[in-house]
Fold this protein.
Amino acid sequence: MTKDLTVGSPMKLIVDFAVPMLLGMLFQQCYNMMDTMIVGKLLGASALAAVGSTGSIQFLVIGFCMGICSGFAIPVAQKMGAGDHSGMRQCVANAGWLSILFAVVVTIVTCVFCHQILTGMNTPQDIYEGAYRYLFVIFLGIPATFLYNLLAGIIRALGDSKTPVVFLAIASFLNIGLDFVLILYFNTGVAGAAIATVVSQSVSGIACLLYMRKKYPILHMTKEERRINGRICRWLCLMGVPMGLQYSITAIGSIVLQTAVNSLGSAYVAAIAAGSKLFQIMCCPFDAMGGTMATYCGQNVGAQKLERLGQGIRSCVILGVGYAVLSFGAILLFAPEMAILFLDVGEQSIIQNTVKYTTILGAFYIPLALVNILRFSIQGMGFSNFAILAGVMEMLARTGVGIWLIPVFGFTGACCASPAAWICADLFLIPATVWCIHSLKKKLSTESPENMDQIDSKEKKWCL
C-alpha cells in the first residue's frame, strides 16, 4: 500500500504519483464547482457574488489549515524515506493530537469574528447576509478540513496517492446530491451549498480514517508511539506552522485585493468569482505537481539521495511548462463557453469580464507552475520557513495591486494581481531552491563524507 519514491526514473515516478492526485483534486473541484454552478444558476448572480466575496477569507483560514496538514506530512515522508517506521508512527500520532488542538482553536476564533471579518472587507450590503451564512457554515466545518487533509497528507507521505481519490469521488457525488436537495427542496439558499461541502468533506475524512486503520499495518501503533512527544510536536510545528502561515500571508494580499474588488460592485465580484472557479479547475495539475514534489523531495531527503532532487525538479518543471502552454490554448478557444457554466447566458457583461479575467491569468501559467513546483519542493526538503518568504512576496504584490492599480485601472488592475504575485514569488523561489539543494549537499558532505560519492559531477554543478 506504500510506494518508494527514492528509486526509479524521477519523471515516471512523478507522473505516476501526480495523476491520482490530479484526479482527486478534480473531484474536489468538481463538488466546489457544483456549489458555484448551482448557486449561480438557481439563486442568481447576487448569490454567486455572496459566495465569491468570501473566497479570499476562506483562502486565509482554510489555506492555513491545509498548509499545517501538509507540513505535518513532511516529517512522515522523511521518516518513511529513512526507513524509520516507529519514528514515522510517532509523527503520525503527534500530528493527530496537534490537529485536534488547532481545529478547535481556529473554529472558535473564526466563528466568533465572522461578522467583523466581512464588515472589515467592505462586503456589499446586497450580498452581506448571504456571504455571512455561507462563510459561517464553512468555518464550522474546519474540523472536517483538518480531518481529511491530515489523513490524505499522511497517506500520500507513505507513497499512496490513489486511495484518497476514491473517497473524494464518493464525496463529490454526495456533495452534488446534497446541493440539489438542500437548495431546491429545503430552500436553504447559499448556506445549503456550504452545508453540502462540509458534510461531503467529513464523509471523505472519516472514510480515510477507517480505511487506514484496516489497510495500513505499518500505521498500527504501540501505546508508547501514541503518546504526546514534545520534541516531535516541536518538529511538526516547525514544518506545519510556516506552511500554514505561508498560505495565510498570501491570503492577506488576496483579502486586500478582494476588498478593493468589492468596492467595484457585486457585478465585478461575480465575474471574479466565476473566473476563480475556472482557474481552480484549470490549475489542478499544478497543485498535483506541487503535492507530488513535497512527497518526492521529503522521501529522498530522508533517504539521503540528494542527487535525485535536481532530477525530479527538472522533470516536473518540464511537465508544468507543457501543461501551461496547452491550458492557455484551451482558454483562448473556449473561455466564453467555460464562463457560461457558472453564469446565465443573458448576463453578457459579467461573462465578458469573466473571460477577460481568465485569459489574463492563463497567459501567466508558466510562472504559476514554477511557484507550485519549487515552493513544495523546498517544503519537502524541510525548509518550510522559506515558504513564508515566498508568501510575503505574493502578499506584497497583491496588496500593491489592490491599493494602487485597482483605483486607477479598475477591473483590469484586479486581473493583473495574481500574475504579479506569481512573478514576484518566482524571483525568490528560483535562487532559494538552488540554495536549499546545495545546503543539503554541504550538510551531508560534512556529516557523512562517504555519502558524497553518490553525487555525480553533473549534480555538483546543479542548475535549473
